[in-house]
Design a protein that fits this description.
Low-confidence stretches: none
Radius of gyration: 26 Å
Structural class: mainly beta
Distance between the termini: 43 Å
CATH topology of the largest domain: Methylamine Dehydrogenase, Chain H
Number of strands: 38
CATH architecture of the largest domain: 7 Propeller
Strand order of the largest sheet: 1-2-3-4
Largest sheet: 4 strands, antiparallel
Helix content: under 10%
CATH class of the largest domain: Mainly Beta
CATH superfamily of the largest domain: YVTN repeat-like/Quinoprotein amine dehydrogenase
């Protein structure tokens, strides 16, 4: 209909379906019409002809990107699909909503869209591409568990599991075994960059060992368990006996007890030291290592995962309800509590997010939830940079960045390590190698940044 005159310009007959969720939207340029009628159909406004049709199970919401090149379709499964407006080809799936992703709209820049389900609003930047799986590794260790997989500073992929409890150093590309050492239990303890791990000395006592060659660096007193190791191995968090009593921080060179952790329950709990060795996080509490004073307690539902940044300037914490909290460690050392040192608070996931890790250059934080979603964040702005769906490993997700390569390693309960790239050039190369057709001009512009003739 002409909005100025009220005259009907074109009539398009649709095939109606019973109980379908009917929605329609005209492209920003006014030349095409997309209709949800139980499937997704695209029509040319001038001629009324149908351009293409795609079957999507129970589509619920739709919006266009600002340039009219793509349409975003919601569904009651919670999956959002980005379709090429010219062909109807699926370009990308976005995971992050619970059931009934029913509403979508485009923000003013034309590349960001906001979507909702019954409980959550999410903003997506469609100019950024999701992560891509580049390898799957069978580490040959069953019962894989926390906190792996880790990638050590010298490039080994470290995993732990049973039976019997072991930690193993593997080739990060092939999974080839380089080293295996008996561990005291399947919940292994590593230092911040996985160059040191807890194994068993010949005496049967717990020991700190190198993950590259197995050499022993420190042996704990008989009957004591190691729950945390500083980056350089100079400090350990110890507890006594099967009930993990009297938790304390000890200097490994002299055996001197620096301080005890009052009222701290240590059962199956590991401590994380900052790389500088000046802060320690255990459970929900953060301690000043020099004074032994508690300087913070994670509020609300508590910490599901935590990690200090490689430069020790920030502490990232994930919660049982999917929040990502980022703290300034300098403020903590200056005497402020956690609430006074909070830099960012992000609703990162809709479920428990136990997996968390920093990129080696401090520029990215990756988080993982029980549902399998892995998201990469900018710690300065809180923007989501990338997302990928590790749905193969939908329980107890753990992750780690490679120290030099642009790869993230993830682990679920199926004892498989999956490797994803967060490098755009590598992602493009992988996509091109898997294409069964040539790229369209729009795809070249969108993904390669230029004309297909220039590539």
């Amino acid at each position: 209909m002409d909005v100025d005159t009220g005259e009907i310009v074109r009539t398009i007959e649709l095939e109606l379906l019973p109980l379908a969720n009917y929605q329609l939207s005209i492209s920003p340029q006014g030349d095409r019409l997309v209709v949800l009628t139980g499937s997704v159909r695209m029509y040319d406004v001038a001629s009324g002809s149908k351009l293409w049709e795609v079957d999507i199970d129970r589509p619920l919401g739709l919006t266009w990107t600002g340039d009219g090149s793509r349409v975003l379709i919601g569904a009651d499964s919670g999956v959002l699909r980005v379709l090429d407006a010219d062909t109807g080809v699926l370009l990308e799936e976005l995971h992050g909503h619970g059931p009934f992703a029913w509403s979508a709209d485009t923000l003013q820049d034309g590349e960001r869209v906001i979507t909702s389900d019954d409980f959550t609003l999410l903003t997506w930047d469609l100019s950024l591409q999701g992560g891509q799986e580049v390898a799957v590794i069978d580490p040959g260790v069953t019962g894989l568990t926390r906190p792996g997989p880790q990638v050590s500073r010298d490039g080994w992929l470290i995993v732990n599991g049973d039976p019997p409890p072991v930690f193993a150093s593997l080739d990060p590309t092939t999974g080839g075994r380089q080293l295996e050492m008996e561990a005291p239990n399947r919940f292994a303890t590593f230092n911040e960059d996985a160059s040191l791990a807890v194994g068993l000395a010949e005496t049967g006592s717990q020991a700190i060992a190198s993950t590259s060659d197995g050499s022993v660096r420190y042996v704990a007193p008989p009957g004591w368990t190691i729950h945390g190791i500083s980056w350089d191995g100079s400090l350990v968090l110890l507890a006594q006996g099967p009930d993990d009593l009297l938790p304390r921080v000890v200097d490994t060179a002299s055996g001197t007890v620096l301080f005890e952790l009052a009222d701290q329950v240590m059962f199956f709990m590991t401590g994380s030291f900052s790389r500088r060795g000046d802060l320690l996080m255990v459970g929900n509490q953060v301690y000043d290592v020099q004074t032994g004073n508690e300087v913070g307690d994670v509020p609300g539902d508590g910490a599901a995962g935590s990690a200090f940044s490689p430069d020790s300037s920030m502490l990232a914490v994930t919660t049982w309800f999917g929040d990502l909290l980022l703290y300034d460690t300098t403020r903590l050392l200056d005497g402020l509590q956690l609430d006074g040192a909070l830099l960012l608070e992000i609703k990162a996931h809709n479920a428990q997010a136990s997996g968390i890790g920093w990129s080696p250059d401090n520029s990215m934080i990756a988080t993982a939830e029980l549902g399998g979603q892995v998201r990469v964040w900018d710690p300065t702005t809180g923007a989501m940079l990338q997302e990928f769906d590790s749905r193969y490993d939908a329980d107890n997700q753990f992750l780690s960045f490679h120290p030099t390569d642009p790869h993230i390693y993830t682990l679920g309960l199926n004892d498989t390590v999956r490797v994803y790239t967060h490098d755009v050039d590598e992602l493009i190369a992988i996509a091109q190698s898997r294409l069964t057709r040539g790229m369209t001009e729009h795809e070249c512009q969108q993904y390669l940044g230029g004309s297909c003739e220039d590539q």
